[in-house]
Amino acid sequence: MGSLSGWVMIAVTAAGCYALKLAGLSVPAHWLEHPALRRFAALAPVALLAALTAVQTFGHDQALTIDARAAGVAAAAVALLLRAPFLVVVIAAAAVTAGLRLLTG
Fold this sequence. Notes:
This protein has helices spanning about 5-25, 30, 35-60, 70-80, 85-105; strands spanning about 60, 65. A two-stranded antiparallel sheet has the order 1-2. The chain has a domain at about 1-35. By secondary structure, the chain is mainly alpha-helical. The protein contains five helices and two strands, in the order H-H-H-E-E-H-H. Helices cover about 80% and strands about 5% of the residues. Strand 1 and strand 2 (about 65) form a beta hairpin.
């Protein structure tokens, strides 16, 4: 892929993002006050983050994989259950994942 086509793709993506943002700003205010839309707006980011976490933790090339990443997420879950601060949760997950990867080569 040439340099010019790469820049064209970046420009088209930027224009699309701008158009999507503009479309969101032009929605009538009374639509945004609907209870179902408010509930969706509150819950959608949580659902998307959970889905992204599941795919990144258990997926590898179109296959289900249980490896050090799953152990890291489990360590983070345990730290959360123990009400550890967020930084401790992240460090625990990273340490368990890195330690298992070091042990398993």
